[in-house]
Each structure stands twice: as structure tokens, then as C-alpha cells.
Design a protein that fits this description.
This protein is an all-alpha fold. The protein is built from eleven helices and no strands. Helix 2 runs antiparallel to helix 3, helix 2 runs antiparallel to helix 7 and helix 2 runs parallel beside helix 9. The protein is globular, with a radius of gyration of 18 Å.
């Protein structure tokens, strides 16, 4: 018997989000009703507190005992292990679909659903990880760790707007996860904003970096990616959300790197 989403408990939805977006065995502790998985995006930034926090802590603590480059690489690996490379898989599929042989809407969807990875996906992941590692390595450990903890939830908050701005591009039964996210109500909107902005506010307060570029440039990147997705697919997919999330997060790091290297900017 299905339970209406509005009758599910708040902590059930949080459990569902952590089970859905990580590979940690939360499901061994508690299994929420399956209806809760339609609301996971509403707590997506909260999972970023875990994934970003673990990555940031690994980088910062590791930099005290290991060469900094090694600490950066291990930190990236830690997050990949926690998430199961969920978003990286989405980025690879997105690049294959939009950059490879996807000449029309259905072909793009078919390519993104294919479990095989193509040339665009491989090259995209390589360049993404090189950029991510290079940017973090160029920052002081304290700044890099704070930026990670801020950018992870923030990028998830920004990307979650795709769910509000477009319909799902496939039918529910065709979804990889067999789940279609529901549209957020105003209470969920306030909650997700707090989840995504609070770590960013702490980061900006502690680093004293100018906030306008750090906050608005990632939003502009998200908007242009939204226009591309809407034009080519007329809707979003989970792969689109994962790809946009990583690219928005990378934009945060790029802007922070720019501001640290050029304080006058």
C-alpha cells in the first residue's frame, strides 16, 4: 500500500536522501517508505554536508601529514567512494549525449541511458578531475577545505532548481532509478535554501572573500546549462542534474581560485 508523500515523516525523507545520494550503508540502519525517494532532491544539499565535509576534512588533515598534492587526490577519492561516483557518472553520460552522437532528443536520451562510456565522457571526466585537483592544489589547505564544504551543498541547492524549472524528460518507468522527483513546495524551498547557503555564509565570513562573484557566477553557469538542456531535451534527467551539479561546483572553485590569486578582482 502506497503512502501519500505528504503523510511521510520528515526524517524518513532525510534518510531516503542519504541512502539515495551516498553509498554508505544507511539502509542497514533504517529503510524509509519508497515514496520518500521522490523527495530526495529536497535534502540533496544536506547530503553535501556529509560528502563535502568528509572531503574537506580529508584534505585538511591529510595536508598536515602528507604532501599536499597527495592529500588533494585522496580527498577526491574519499568523496568518490562515498557517493559511488554518482554525479561523475551523470557528467560522463551528459557529455556523451550532448557532445557525441546525440543529434536529436531521443538519441541523446538513449546515449545517456547506455551504460557504456564514450570518448566525450572519458575526456570530460579526465579534464574535470584534473581541473578540480589543480584548483584545490593551488589554494591554501584551509581555504580549499572551507571552499569544499561550502561549494558541495551550494552547488546541489542551485542545481535542484532544474527540477522546478523543467519536467522530467522521460517517463517514470524509463528512469534509471525508477524515481521522478516531485516539485518542491515553499516549505521545501526554504529548507533547501538554508541547507545550501549556510555553509557558504560561513565560508564567506571566515575567508572575507567578495561574495558576489562566488554566489552569482555559478548561478549563471547553471542558467546557461538549463537553457541548453531545455533546448535539446525539453526536460531534465538525473544525469543532467549530476552533470550540472559538478560543473556549478567547479565554477565555485574557479572563482575562489581567481579571487585568491588576484585579490583586487
Amino acid at each position: 500500500m502506497e503512502i501519500p508523500i505528504d503523510q511521510t515523516r520528515f526524517y524518513d525523507r532525510i534518510w531516503a536522501a542519504f541512502i539515495y545520494f551516498t553509498r554508505l550503508p544507511f539502509w542497514r540502519i533504517y529503510e524509509p517508505p519508497k515514496e520518500c525517494y521522490k523527495t530526495v532532491v529536497e535534502h540533496w544539499p544536506l547530503t553535501g554536508w556529509l560528502t563535502g565535509g568528509a572531503m574537506a576534512a580529508t584534505l585538511f588533515v591529510g595536508s598536515m601529514y602528507l604532501p599536499y598534492l597527495v592529500a588533494v587526490i585522496i580527498a577526491i577519492i574519499v568523496r568518490l567512494l562515498i557517493t559511488g561516483a554518482l554525479h561523475e557518472d551523470g557528467l560522463a553520460d551528459f557529455l556523451d549525449g550532448f557532445g557525441g552522437g546525440g543529434r536529436d532528443r531521443q538519441r541523446i536520451l538513449d546515449i545517456m541511458k547506455d551504460s557504456r562510456i564514450g570518448t566525450y565522457g572519458v575526456l570530460g571526466l579526465v579534464f574535470y578531475e584534473l581541473l578540480l585537483g589543480g584548483i584545490l592544489y593551488s589554494l591554501p589547505p584551509e581555504t580549499a577545505a572551507l571552499a569544499i564544504f561550502a561549494a558541495d551543498p551550494f552547488s546541489k541547492m542551485v542545481t535542484s532548481q532544474l527540477v522546478m524549472m523543467m519536467p522530467y524528460a522521460r517517463k517514470e518507468e524509463e528512469a534509471k532509478s525508477k524515481t521522478v522527483y516531485r516539485k518542491m513546495e515553499w516549505v521545501a524551498g526554504i529548507s533547501i535554501t538554508i541547507q545550501g547557503l549556510l555553509p557558504m555564509v560561513v565560508f564567506l565570513y571566515l575567508t572575507r572573500l567578495p561574495w558576489t562573484m562566488i554566489v552569482f557566477m555559478p548561478c549563471i553557469v547553471m542558467y546557461f546549462l538549463y537553457l541548453l538542456i531545455r533546448h535539446r531535451l525539453q526536460g531534465y534527467t538525473g544525469d543532467c542534474c549530476g552533470a550540472v551539479c559538478l560543473l556549478v561546483e567547479l565554477t565555485v572553485y574557479l572563482i575562489v581560485c581567481l579571487l585568491v590569486a588576484n585579490p583586487i578582482v
